[in-house]
Amino acid sequence: MSHSSSATHAQQAEIFCRDESRVDWHSKALWLMREKRDRAAGSIPEWEQLRQLGSEIKLHTLTNLADLLQQFEANCQANGIQVHWARDGKEHNQIVHEILARHQVKKLVKSKSMLTEECHMNPYLEERGIEVIDTDLGERIIQLAGQPPSHIVVPAIHMKKEEVGDLFHEKIGTEAGASDPTYLTRAARQHLREQFLSADAAMTGVNMAVADKGAVVVCTNEGNADMGVNLPAVQLHSMGIDKIVPNLDSAAVLLRMLARNATGQPVTTYSSMYRGPKAGGEMHVIIVDNGRTAMLQDKILAESLKCIRCGGCLNTCPVYRRSGGHSYSYTIPGPIGIAVGGSKDDTNSIPWACTLCASCSGVCPTKVPLDKIIHHHRRLKAEAGQLPYGKANYMPLVGKLMGSQTAFNCSMSMARGALKILPGSLLKPFAGAWGKYRELPVAPKSSFEHWYKNNRSE
Amino acid sequence: MPGRNEILSALAKSALDKQPMPVIDIAPNMQDLTGQFETNLAMVAGTLHRDATLELVQEKVNSLIAEGLQVLSLVEGVTGNRTLPATPHELKDIDYAVISGELAVAENGAIWVTEQHQHRVTPFICENLLLVVAEEDLVANMHQAVTKLTLESGSCGAFIAGPSKTADIEQSLVVGAHGACSLGVYLV
Ligand code: SF4
């Protein structure tokens, strides 16, 4: 179930969809999170006001990013924090490696960071002899399984407890056949305690970087970020340029929504703020671009940088829930993954892993216009002549058909006719991988056009 | 730094028009802050001891010590049976840590805990955590909390809402992930 850069979303989804009961189970687990989110959002009378503020704060930040980044840098330095800048993933990894090598680090404990996934940091460091231990339980599970994350908040959501049990039995010596989540979590706690206590350095992602304080905010439920950074002397925090917030007032608005929108909790268990290194220690912040400034040069794509990575749009997405996180070619799956990864998608297919239902935009705490951005990606692909196989053939035809009223009406009635007379086996290949495990719609006897003609236009 | 300058000059080419910072003006819900706090703390799996006193906390600590447990107290007026070790790693066998919280937030059950000595890991590495907060330091929401909290240059702090937890295996909630496995809050 690993990423394959050449397989399209539909081809990958086809693999996931073969096991129908697993698809249903996956979809339900995510929908449960959506329901919890609805309850949490509903319990805050000012929820919509918060979303509006969240959107405006992020827009203000993105449109003043150069100033705020420099303010953040200066304040960090005044607090004894060393700040580094990386144009891309490669530079990021080099900077990290250089810091770790200087301290002869053999073992690095890491808490969840989608950015280090985006930069492919783990393999880079491992090739250079540094052991990287992911410490978030879900991340540790997929690391031991040799898989990429399938969700940005719950990375092992695609795995069943029995599978985790077998994996832990093999890798960390839990009892054979044991699959109780509490037992497995306790075993992981013991296993990871040893890692925390023997680590030479720790690294985390950043949820927010507070410009006027020169501090980073890191949120975890498990406490793994804090267990990590507070034991060894060296701590590193990697952040995209989009993680800046002007001040703590802004952070408060986003913190009120982040966990509520992610899992339905009133707040994440630990929202920690680091405003300088520990006594005798070193603290590094690495600010990464990796395509973000380019996104800011497109008015529509720019808004995807308002995202605070709550995962809400994944949980609600009908395509994500039924195709699984591994069906997307980009590290981040789901609607936000399409928005920020669409330009890097060499399969030219993920912008079509979307029904444009806009459920994602409706739940987003910072009002990222996801459906608009995804639609925009389709246009960009079409303009670049990168329509996915199949679509490239019929899209120009669609254009011609739509342009000619008579031809359009004819073809629609032909399709309705075909649905009625041709056997499914003949038609289904035209419905793509989706159709394989779905029934084709029942053809209406008469179209709206026919009905209108017969009833209204005498 | 080439990276820095290039990123900053690329930002000058942004397509977005400047947007002002919005005014954050949200009316706090001031009704029964202690009640709100208690409900939300329970929701995040913490336990509240209302109308507590330091004597009561000391009694609790005494009973824990009598059970043979290792207790470290950083709260003035409460004494445990352990003192601060030389390295943070030596805190690994602390059963209970007693620490004071600076603020408690009614809307979500979180408590702001500042860095109180050189071992920042204390509230996270202990098996169980007891936080002592003055009832007068209860605020309605996060907007109020961030205007009041202390975060000195060179230090750290954390909002702690309940014991550590995870739902990473099939979405079933397990309390006790990497941080403390239980949280008791004493409002004094
Ligand atoms: S786009 Fe919005 S809903 Fe999706 S992860 Fe980002 S903040 Fe959450």
From TrEMBL, chain A:
SUPFAM superfamilies: 4Fe-4S ferredoxins, NagB/RpiA/CoA transferase-like
UniProt cross-references to Pfam families, sorted A to Z: Fer4_8 (PF13183), LUD_dom (PF02589)
Keywords attached to this entry: 4Fe-4S, Electron transport, Iron, Iron-sulfur, Metal-binding, Repeat, Transport
4Fe-4S ferredoxin-type domain mapped to chain residues: 298-327
Protein name as annotated: Lactate utilization protein
Automatic annotation (TrEMBL), chain B:
InterPro entries in UniProt: FTHF_cligase-like_sf, LUD_dom, NagB/RpiA_transferase-like
Superkingdom of this protein's organism: Bacteria
Signal sequence, start to end: none
Domain LUD: 90-188
A Pfam family reported for this protein in Swiss-Prot or TrEMBL: LUD_dom
Name listed for the protein in its UniProt record: Lactate utilization protein
Organism: Shewanella corallii
